[in-house]
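Lecture 7 notes: from sequence to structure.

We start with a single chain of 378 residues. Read the sequence below before looking at the structure.
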Amino acid sequence: MSALCVPPSAVAGKAQVAYRSRRTRWITDPAAAESDSLSIGLRPPSERRVAQDPDAVVAWVRAWHCYPGAGRVEWETRRWPSFGTQEVPMRLLLSGATEIAAAAARGPEWRTLTERQALLFDGLGPGTATLATAIAATHARWLELDEPDFARLVAAVRWLAEHPSSGLFIRQLPVPGVDTKWVARHRGLVETLLDGVRGDRDLGVRSLPRMCEVAVCDRALLAAAPRIFATSLDELAALPVKPARTLILENKEGLHALPDLPATVAVHGGGYAVHELADVPWLAASDVVYWGDLDTHGFAILDRLRGRLPHVRSLLMDRGTVELWRDLAVPEASPAPHTPAHLTGPERDALAVVRTEGLRLEQERIPWPYVVAHLEAL
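Now the structure, written as tokens:
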């Protein structure tokens, strides 16, 4: 009997399924939340089932008479020849999101959702369709915030919406409790809500510039500067230097180990950001040599740079170097999926070896006298 008839204890599970599947729609359309309903059929027993276990049927009916939860139980009269006229529960009707949430044991959560939705509209309004969509799309994330963080969220988005081009650093935002780490944790949420308010995701703040380490391998090129220093891309482009050759290294350690080299400036490439160096005029006008790790990522970075600077040459990124120093390689844990389009034949041969055998030979592991000899041969 119990396997066929739906007991009051089963209501929460059925309501939870509806709550989870409908919650986003309710947040998007409050009118739908009010008009929605859920009918849970209780599957009352047949006369034959009553005859098989009358005590279980009586207990089931009593349980529904005492049902304390949300919604309204609908009863119907059944006339059975063997048992006379009986009132049996037929279905539980839940009207509106509030009743469905209560039956699902999600009443407090739903109240928090609707209260916070109202606070977002009040704090970020006017309540446009785009804002409503953004609020609905992010509800799972802002629901997880504690009260202080939710208040910070509203205050931060409102301030950023009112100051679309502040030019401040994040640390300078005059919003209590909102520091760099807070923005880093919640940036996607902030950007989506900001897009709902004003139609773009730009926070209007400044980021610290990417700093490039530079080694002046021929001091005559820039006598007043330190041999090794760091500068922003803009300042790098403005340097009064005209080297015959620019050496771009994937890693910083090699930069600090470089010997003096005539008419040469060396620059740290910054990994996959290496293509940004193509916008440095004096660098692009020089003989550019790239030296990276002998792994799939090193060749992917070289390929990206050559896509912007076709005349780039590579150093020690050939099959001969791989074969000669294979015993110094380690397994490459996460190969790059990229398929390069701008490699030379020797570079493609080297890539085939490291990809097929899963090798990673860091550039600094190659014995330094061998490296220096090839640098001088440039």
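The longest strand covers residues 84-95. Keep this in mind for problem set 3.
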